[in-house]
């Protein structure tokens, strides 16, 4: 069986070959215009989407190597808050991921969960990195964590990769989800698609809770109960990227959560969307990676889920609970398309 390092090396060699044939910043990407029949060229600084995805895969796999090597070792754990923990593996994985991104795109902006903002925030591209999504799960050997690498243009994720760890102690395996805009999502190279469940009473849903027990947390607890009463079950894994990947392959049918950050969502959003998911805010507005609430579904269930999340979210807003867009790196232009 080909090792992860050999596989990643092969991808890097292939990417180098592609670079020799195609200058990075003169990619022949085209976009459909709003006028039927017209096609407009991509912006001059556009990078080929397939290339962005390949680099995301290489970076995520490099981070996954670090995580894999740490699985059977004692955990070195510290705390960012009362219950929000971080391990040395988070930091080492982020360093490995960012090294790949800086090598290929030294002028792109970078946003890591552990290291914050770096690179050129005047860039059209922002890489959002969660080096170990589901750190608490990792610390307890609970098989629901991942390395997530997504790239955003403006406010829209355009390519990403999530390497999910499953199986558990003595049986760890990974599966690699990848997608870019206009390319169907794959898991370990095979196409995946959202479910066709059209009745919320037949659905399995998933949600998440932040570390702050605030008004949004309380509202979500109420939603958890309401959905448990009407669907076949609600799960809570504690790893947003994993939740979105499970939606993309039809394992769950809908997902909602407050208080997410760009690194939690960037890769998972494009992976879910290109598998057929619909994504909005929890009150039904158009979604951006900087929003503070997200509802993702298999599309068929979206309105049925929104019928419950919308009133709760509007109630929070009416009570002046802050759900405004999250921190945007200084100098980063969210209007780019």
Describe it.
This protein is α+β, with helices and mostly antiparallel strands. It folds into two domains: 4-28 and 42-191, Fructose-1,6-Bisphosphatase, Chain A, domain 1 (2-Layer Sandwich); 200-318, D-Maltodextrin-Binding Protein, domain 2. Helices cover 34% and strands 25% of the residues. The protein is built from eight helices and 17 strands. The strands form four sheets. Strands 6-5-7-8-9-10-11-12 form an eight-stranded mixed beta sheet, with helices on both faces. Strands 14-13-15-17-16 form a five-stranded mixed beta sheet, with helices on both faces. α1 runs antiparallel to α2 and α6 (240-248) runs parallel beside α7 (262-273). The longest helix has 22 residues, at 49-70. The protein is globular, with a radius of gyration of 19 Å. The N and C termini lie far apart (41 Å). Pfam families: Inositol_P. Pathway: Polyol metabolism; myo-inositol biosynthesis; myo-inositol from D-glucose 6-phosphate: step 2/2. This is Inositol-1-monophosphatase.
Distance between the termini: 41 Å
- Structural class computed from helices and strand pairing: alpha+beta
Low-confidence stretches: 1-9, 14-41
What proportion of the residues form beta strands (DSSP E)? 15-25%
Total number of helical segments? 8
Specify the biggest β-sheet. 8 strands, mixed
- Mean pLDDT comes to 86
Domain count, please report it.
2
- The CATH homologous superfamily of the largest domain is named Fructose-1,6-Bisphosphatase, subunit A, domain 1
Order of adjacent strands in the largest pleated sheet: 6-5-7-8-9-10-11-12
Q: What is the highest CATH level, the class of the largest domain?
A: Alpha Beta
**Rg, Cα atoms, Å:** 19 Å
Total beta strand runs: 17
- CATH architectural designation of the largest domain: 2-Layer Sandwich
**CATH fold annotation of the largest domain:** Fructose-1,6-Bisphosphatase, Chain A, domain 1
Order of helices and strands: HEEHEEHEEEHEEEEEEHEHEHEEH
Oligomer: single chain
- Helix percent band: 25-40%
Based on Cα principal axes, name the global outline: globular
Enzyme class: hydrolase
InterPro entries: IMPase, Inositol_monoP_metal-BS, Inositol_monophosphatase-like, Inositol_monophosphatase_CS
Pathway: Polyol metabolism; myo-inositol biosynthesis; myo-inositol from D-glucose 6-phosphate: step 2/2
EC number: 3.1.3.25
